[in-house]
Amino acid sequence: MSGVRMSENTNAQANAETNAQANAETDAQANAQVGANIEGDTGADEHGHEPGSDSAGAGAGDHAATTQALTAEVAALYPRMEAVSRAIHGRPELKFAEYHASQVVTRWLAEAGFEITAPVGGVDTAFVATHQGSTPDPYITVIVEYDALPGVGHGCGHNLIAAGGAAAAIAVVRAQPGHTGTVAVIGTPGEEMGGAGKVRLAHAGVFDGVDAAVMFHPADRSMTTQHALAAAHLRVCFTGVSAHAAKSPWEGRSALAAAQLFLGALDTMRQFMPPTARVHGIVTDGGQAPNVVPARAVVDLYVRDSTVASTEALVARVRKAADGAALATETDAELSETGPMYAERRNNTVLAERFGDTVRALGVAIGPGDADSPAGSSDIGNLSQLMPVIHPYVQTADFGTPSHSDAMREASVTSLAHDRTGIAAVGLARVVSDLLADSGFLAAARAEFAAGSGSGSMTGAGSGSVTETGSATEAGSVTGAEAGSRGVGTGTGKGTEAGADRGRGRGSRK
Q1: How many other C-beta atoms lie within 10 A of the C-beta of residue 406?
Q2: What's the longest Cα–Cα distance across the chain?
Q3: For a designed S-S bond to 487, which of 126, 130, 262, 466 qualifies (C-beta 3.0 to 4.6 A apart)?
Q4: Mapping DSSP to helix (H, G, I), strand (E, B) and coil, where does residue 115 land?
Q5: Per-residue pLDDT band at 61 (split at 50, 70, 90)
Q6: DSSP character at residue 50
């Protein structure tokens, strides 16, 4: 497929790619590209907001000066930001194999004065980059992602997330060299394909002591907040009996027939699922030869709904469908997780509104997303159960460009994409800067989080792949209750090596 090249990492080549791109444009051009957007809008946007109308905190003059300083820094960083984006986009790497991308980003951060700790949390391609100011607290992190999709490459724009997030953090420490607190960038691999990189890192203690986390996501429209679904990542393995498919098929029991029946049962169930639910999957193993009755068939699927609780209930129904298919075909069904559950997202509106105010002042019309619109899932939802988090979307592609597509991949290296990523970087930098400098702003974000936090545990962050087996060959269908626990656990998000992993020497304060 054009533009998609999975490859190994080499430091020399990565340096050459990045440096060559960095010299392609001058700082003056970058200032024009990013800075020109400051005067892009002079009236209220479609959401009824006036440009630069911050909702809380310091006066308008202070806000304008902060935004102006951060915009100038991002403009100066623009050539390197685009170079990093293109370097990652040109060498897409799948979950937990993002060696090239991780090194391209950490090299830039190290050159900007950040202390790099890598790997962290037991994940080879994860990292923590920190820049400590006059005090260690508050500890504010920018989250970056950089994994690609199989067969599509960067059709979700994670190259822009990585480049824009790093630019935001560097802009803060350059604009405020005497800042208080700690500015961090945490590299979180494996967001796609149920990798749950953030969940793994949280359980390893990497996020212990973080006061707030921010990131942005490319899209075909701009939204300060957008809901996201909880998601279970499942595998159903059917085991039958092989036989010659022509001479003696009656001696076999087809695992593929069980898989087909299972998928048919899911289709039948759709009419009776809530409108918010989504169930979709693929057959990853359907047999090896047409003249052999398949003794093994595997279906990988995602089960989603608006909350972890409703997703759990739907998983139980999916389990029964698998058991029923096994019963009908005299095969065995085994259900397991391929990754931890993703929790629904809790958007911190205090932080999101500050981001929105900033990017609106730079010419981007943005407002809250529609609560009833279709949505995907992400492991940022699990972090949002632990701390104030924002995950706004900024339009980097033409309206209607689908995510996870060839079209979005191609859109993620355009001038529009990089210009908008620069604006998003200013928005993130502004939120980070204000959290460091304004204790009242951080207190307001914490208060909103506490008001709806519940227990604050790491929801749906199972400790591993827990298997459930439903043998229907002799005993009949095994129901969800008989099979035991569903295998999607909870945890506290605490870790015993947080200080060592993050190079700070202090554990959780939460």
Answers
A1: 16
A2: 85
A3: 466
A4: strand
A5: low
A6: P
